[in-house]
């Protein structure tokens, strides 16, 4: 067998993305061999593909469905291709900067996709606590499950309100954007202050620090509640437009890869 190439090396030679390499593997245009959890591709196979020659013979452990072909971390279960996290993070950061609200993208099961943007002092404090961080993740999973059932407004374990909107890749749900991490009234702020000693005990934090962080939490007046829901939808639509562009790019790359099959 000729020299074995990594997926990255094949990408660089063919000038295609990772998902296109796995699609070519799936449909038989490219032969590969799986070594442990990694795919390797004979250089002769890549050269044959570049020359537009038909596939001949077979190699062990090739083909299979696309999800099986890709390394586990490369294929989110609900997405057609890996999410462009950097692009989503950029949109999210800009949104938080303009709105003054915290935000994060979670996948369909509630696992974080992006890093928190615009997190308030209380959120940051919770993230820095091991127990608080775990509680945040449990809240996100609960929000994902509730959102799938049609709910859109939630109160997290720390007493802050977030609003969700779905992020679709075509017709496929790939996640949710959570916006807010805020309080909806002065009464909510006072109620949370009353619970500060309980939060401090639960997460082994200084009471005074928890109280101070609650006082700094953003309060959204009732006149802006509807607007807040609208902002979340706008943010999700901006992210969906990125996914749509990504899908079009993948199609164009597939078309380019298909040209290598012309004699």
Describe this structure in words.
There is one protein chain. With 263 residues, this protein is an alpha+beta fold. Helix content is 50%, strand content 15%. Helix 5 (85-99) runs antiparallel to helix 11 (225-259), helix 6 (121-128) packs across helix 7 (130-148) and helix 9 crosses helix 10. Residues 60-80 have low confidence and may be disordered.
Q: Can you tell me the overall shape?
A: elongated
Largest sheet: 4 strands, antiparallel
Strand order of the largest sheet: 4-7-6-5
Question: Hey, roughly how much beta strand do the residues contain?
Answer: 5-15%
Determine the fraction of residues in helical runs and give it as a percent range: 40-55%
The second-level CATH architecture of the largest domain is 2-Layer Sandwich
As residue ranges, the low-confidence spans are 60-80
Write down the overall mean pLDDT.
83
Number of helices: 11
- Give the number of DSSP strands: 7
CATH class of the largest domain: Alpha Beta
Give the tally of structural domains. Answer: 2
Q: What is the SS-derived class?
A: alpha+beta
Distance between the termini: 25 Å
- Which fold name is given in CATH as the topology of the largest domain? Beta-Lactamase
What is the succession of H and E elements? Answer: EHHEEHHHEHHEEEHHHH
Cα Rg: 23 Å
